[in-house]
Amino acid sequence: MSSETNARGGSDNRGEVRAVPDRCPGALTAHQAADGALARVRLPGGRLTSEQLLVLARAATDLSTGSMELSSRGNIQFRSVTDTDELARRLADADLLPSPTHERVRNILASPLSGRVGGLTDVRQLIADLDLALISHPELAALPGRTLFALDDGRGDVIAPGPDFAVQAVDDTTYALILAGNDSGARIDRSRVVDVLVDAARSFVEFRTTEWRLRELDEGPARVLASLGLRRGTPTSLPVASENIPPVGWLTQSDGRVTLGGVLALGTLDARLAEFLAAVDKPIVVTPWRSLIVCDLDEDVADTVVRVLAPLGLIFDENSPWIEASACTGSPGCEKSHSDVRADLTDAVDTLQITPGQRQHWSGCERRCGRPAGDVLDVVAGPTGYRVS
């Protein structure tokens, strides 16, 4: 599965709520897919150091399929893991598993280019502060694995997925509080962002029974807002990027250096390519569009990176059809899939059957796992073939 799944709660014959385990995959709680154990590594803000990326690359080679999957939340997935305990040990040693109790709830999206290219403000420090705050509150370990936080620097690029608890900058120091994907009308100072998001999540833990997203809780946003002691103002028209297009190619940073945006076919990162990326020794960001950005490069280095990594599969061409095409796992990795959708999508790309300018997602069944938010053409496999909606 490319999207995250949770078991839902229910009631027994006495009308009491049954506690159903959260089945959302993690690094310590692998999901048993049709092709073996699936482990997901949370990367708050999608951020990786070169040392961490090298650890992941070697784990993919030694313990998995030789490649990794990028998820729509900027995380990394390993399929067919042969030794989950060894994977967890390596992740912990690389500081990719700072809290065993909270590892599935560290779901933080952040504007990938923040502080480097565009945006109203820099949210990078808020990523680290929010992550630390989440794992510092024992009660937040009870958050469902689907809970999503987001830190948007004003451009609206991480609001479209409908985060449960988020902020979006309206100027350099003021943020709109976003609850269940919508502007609550409340405005908070940057100094309060982390505390407000954490307290909102704590309220959700207190209020919820079987709900695993804030939008499913009856009057959820209003109840959370009241618990925070914040007054609901009049929501304004905040920018929301709906095109689902990752940053691609050569991007000039505000400091004159270069960020390179690269796309991966099917969001799959080969271990060998990852090792070359790690050798660049610069910060890496995994984006919510299953792409990568390589940051803080001098121009000469950036030119070399393009020439070396493009032949290895990192796509810097802004006209590539892979920018607008994605797919779920499909067969044989998912037992519910009606088709090998990844192979079928690859054939469609190779034979120029992808319509330019139309974001599309291929799914092996009606669950449509991994579907991006926003305006997307759905190509869904069924028992007798594909249908388009």
Task: Considering the chains and any ligands shown, give keywords for the structure.
globular, disordered N terminus, 23% strand, 389 residues, five-stranded antiparallel β-sheet, single chain, alpha+beta
Q: What does this 3D model show about the protein?
A:
The structure is a single chain. The protein is α+β, with helices and mostly antiparallel strands. Helices cover 23% and strands 23% of the residues. It has eight helices and 21 strands. The longest helix has 15 residues. The N terminus is likely disordered.
| Contiguous helical run count | 8
What low-confidence regions span 5 or more consecutive residues with pLDDT below 50?
A: 1-18
Average pLDDT, rounded to a whole number, is 90
Record the strand order, biggest sheet: 3-4-7-6-15
Helix share of residues? Answer: 10-25%
Rg from alpha-carbon coordinates: 20 Å
How would you describe the shape?
globular
Can you summarize the main beta sheet? 5 strands, antiparallel
State which percent range the strand residues make up: 15-25%
Structure summary, number of beta strands: 21
Briefly note the structural class of the backbone: alpha+beta
The SSE string, one letter per element, is EEEEEHEEHEHEEEEHHEEEHEEHEHEEE
Terminal CA distance reads 21 Å
